[in-house]
Design goal:
The chain is mostly helical. It has 37 helices and four strands. Strands 2-3-1-4 form a four-stranded antiparallel beta sheet, with helices on both faces.
Length: 885
Amino acid sequence: MPNKRQYILVLIAGFFIFLFTACTQYKNKLINRAYHDVTLRYNVYFYARESLKDGVQKLEDAYKDDYTELLPVFKYGTKETAKAIFPEMDRAIKKASEGIQRHAIKDKKSKVEIPNSGRWVDDCWNTIGKAHFYKREFFSAIEAFEYVESAYKSKQKEEAKLWLMKSYNELNALSQSDHYASQIKNDKKFPDEYKGHYHALYAEFYIKQGNGQYDEAIKQLNEAIKKTKKKAVKARYHFILGQLYEEKNKHEQAMFNYRMVVRLKPPTYELIFYAKMRESLMNKNPEAIQKAKDELYKMTKDFKNSDLLDVIYYTLGQIDENQNSVDNAYDNYQLSVKNSVSNNKQKAKSYLKLADISFEKENYVPSSRFYDSTLALIKDDYPGYKDIKAKKTSLDSLVKNIVIIKTQDSLQMVANMDTVTRGRFIKKIIKDLIKHEEDSIAKKQAAASSGGGTPLSPSQGFTPQAPQNNAGPGDWYFYNTMLKAQGLNDFVKRWGTNRKNEDNWRRSNKTSFTFDEVETANTKDSTKGKDTVVLKSNDKHQIDYYLKNLPLTKADQDSSNKKILEAYYALGTIYREMLNNSKKSAQSFETMNERFPGNKYEAASYYQLYRIFIQQKNDPKATAAKNFLLTNYPKSDYARIINDPDFAKSVNAKQSEVDAEYAVAYADYENKNYSEAITICTNAVVKYGKGALTPKFAYLGALSTGYLYGIDSLEKSLASVVIKYPKSEVYDMAKATLDLIKKQKQIYVPVDTMSEKDLPSTTFKVDDKAPHYFIVILNNAKEVEAIKNKLSDLNKEYFSTNKYEIITMPKDEKTMITVRTFTNKDDAMGYYNFILTKPDIFTNIDKRNYSLIAITTDNVGALLKTGNFDEYKVFFDAKYLGVKQ
């Protein structure tokens, strides 16, 4: 009879036999399925699911909603933010894939998984799809979900349909998304637990179609709220509903949904905050409006709103504007800007409001500054960007001329003083400057000692009182903050905003030396090694500094008056033509003629005044302007136009004739009728002399000559355009093309004589006979499609028999537009040189934002692997262009 020890041994042996029998994946028996289900669920799938959860939570925690736009229904992040969760998603994919590989029941012969034989395998497939989705690898995600949807019969099949909808929504492939939405809609057995998610996805589907489908989106979101249990999710849906109702001008429904957000008390405070802001703007009842304003002012005192004060004051400004209280609105928008911490989009909106209000009030100088600040904070896809930029451009010209007038008036005022008075005046400026510097330093040091800041350097922020003369506050040249702002704007335009605060910042190579620094260098005592000595003419504490720009001679006075005259005429024209302000235009012309009677613009300005007064129906002034022209300029075109309206028609007819002739010439050029185009352009240059279109005729003729007679003729013709029309709008284009031609003629020189020692150590190899690609490397992805299309058109026209293929390959922050395949190096470099003669391909693209290379197929692999574009450019310059290192 077996003893206890033998029983234990038998049980152990039986257990191991069981394990051995159960762990095989090639038997579809209950015991096998049970073993693999338990092992997969607790040993593998659990960790894959947890990793996915961690990644999603990390993504949502980092997600920043933009409440100035319609909120997305779901928080997916962007391609850039997705990179932060790659480790968690890759871990989820790895674990789930291992689980499928080790624990899916498979057919013994084909070694292929038997669907529906395991409880958790479909969950693993969906986990893989979700992880790819959050990595924004949508096609890989779709592949996983489609497998589950087609192969399985479990509940995971229905979830896969939801995620297929989600994936196609993100790809904007809405017809594909609608296919799965219809399947779910018609499925009466679709699980209740997924219905909230489904209706939210369907709402997203309609939102992506635009405003025309917002009614359907509203219906779906209302259904989603009914089927959703989580308060945070329901609150988000209510907020989006409020935004959609606002778009439909249904303010009562919008207010209801914003109130629901507050009642649900979601954990995200910003959602509650912005719901209150939006609701405040919806009120129409005066009592409700005042109550809303009181609540908003109360919120400014709450510490938790310290980072949101800019939004509160902006909302108050909007309420004031709605009540036609523009001055109060202006003050609140200023407070919004002042309290802006990190929300640049909100700051841009506040600046734009200040700019528009200033513009409407004809305060053009501050309006220009506010538009400038707005443009510095927005991108070219911002709504109304072109209009903002156009206004800013007009105001720039206006402010520039205002500054010229004020500057020259200030300088003349001081120049016209006698020597003693001038000396006293300047000494008073210096005294005020020193006093201000001492006060500023004392205040800053007091603040620093109490933990409030750091000491001020001398002359920082000096704004003394303006002289009590005819010049108004701020008119005096040396105090003019507008001039300082203009200087700052010029600096930013040239050097950018991200300059490191360091000595010699302007030099990229600190060992080099430029002529710009000669004056600085000359101020140093190089023999004694003492501290720098500042020249008197550059020291604000010396009288010479204030004398150097004064128009003290007759020639300087005439030059100053000429600048003022030109500026006044420009002001009158800008006010009328660009800003549509005829009143200001008339004032500018009248002031100009009063100050400078008989000036060269007198006839033109009186004709403009005549037209302005006719428009204003001011008959006495219109008659006076007309009589002045007829009396003082009886033979001018302006007098002839007034006396004979048909004369104006003939002038316009002549201009129409020129325009029509240019259109014909351009059409011939476009249709490759270069000989006809050259004939028309040559005759037009002679016929119209100094006409406005003459430079364009010359440039078009030069291009046609190049196509007909070759690159040497093109070079000669363009050189003539550059010399004859240096101030025309075609000058830059002609000069750029000419420079490229000169460069091209020196580009491809055989470098067989170069040795490897001339090259830096590199991962790239030389192989002249290997197949090559031509590549355009772009820093800005916005230009990809335009350049790709231009290359495609060019290939069809010039290389149709070669059948080159064009593909795009993203790598890190760059995009490679690749033309392939060339037989060898010479073949690729021939194409390279040809592209250099086609500058139109890269019109309006900064040269620093793209580069051109030829590269072997093997080196392409190395480049994609390393991403070291700079190293390859050095290699290419040396081995293909013959540039010595």
